[in-house]
Amino acid sequence: MDDCKVFYVFVLDTMADKVVYNNTQSAVQGRVGSVMVKKLAKFDEMLKKSTSGYLVGDSPTVADFCFFGMTSILQERMKPLIINYTSIIAHYQKIKNMKSIDQYYKEEHKGDGPLEKKGLELVYFDSVGRAESIRLACRHGNITFRDIRVNQDTLTKMKEEGLVPFGQLPVMFIDGVPLAQSIPILRYVGKLSTCTPQLYPSDDLVAAKIDATLAQIGDLVQPISVLYHPEHHGWKLDEPPKSGENTKKKCAYTYERHYVGSPR
Ligand SMILES: N[C@@H](CCC(=O)N[C@@H](CS)C(=O)NCC(=O)O)C(=O)O
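A: This is the predicted complex of the input protein with glutathione.
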C-alpha cells in the first residue's frame, strides 16, 4: 500500500463520521466564505485598536506587506467581501500611499528576464499572488532583487531541473540557492532590509508577534487558495454526492480522482 493510501485509509477509519461529504464547489465556497469573514473581522478589530494603523508596533513590518498582498487580491477579485471592514481598507490605503509603494505602482513591472543565479532573484508568476508582499518589502526595505516572472511551462522545466524545493512558487534564489515558501522569504528580506526601523525587528518578542500575525494571515490565505484551487486540497468532487450514497465509496472516489489521479 503506498503512503497516500495508508493516509487515506487512516482518515477514513478514524474520521469517517466527522468528514463533511458535501464538497460541491458551491458548498465549499459557502463554508470557506464563513471562515474568511470571521478571520477578516478579527483583523479589522486588531487594526481598529492600533494607534499607528500598522499591524504590529509603530512602524511598517513584513506583516503589513503580507496583509497588503492578501487584501490586494481581495480588492481585485472579492471587493464586496471587504468593503465593510473600514480599518482593513484604511490599512490597504495606508500601505498603498507609502512613498516607496506609491512609486512602485507608478512603474511598469514586466519582469527582469531569465534566472541568472546571481544575487537575489525572486521567481513567481506574472501576478500579485503570494509574491507581491515580497516585492514590496524589498522595495520599501531598499533591497535590490531581480523580479523573475515565469509561466507554468517554465515552472515545470524548473521543477524538472530540481530548482523548486517544494514544487511551488514563489522561490527566492540567493546566489543561485533556492529558498521556498513565501512567509520565510518575507521574513528573510525583512531581516535584510535597511530602512529604519527594519521590517523585521531583532527584538525577540516583537519578532514573535510578527510571526504570529504572519501565521494568522497564512490561515486566512489558505481558504482563498481552497476557493481558487479546491482540487489541490482534495475538496472538489467531479459530481455532487447523492443522498443516501455510500460515503466510503464516495470518499474512495475522491481519493482516486484527487489524490491518486492528481498530477502532483
Ligand atoms: N505555502 C506556499 C504556497 C505556494 C503556492 O501555493 N504556490 C502556487 C501559486 S500561489 C503555485 O506554485 N502553484 C503552481 C503549482 O502548484 O503548480 C507559499 O506560501 O509559498
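Confidence is low (pLDDT under 50) at residues 255-264. The chain has eleven helices and four strands.
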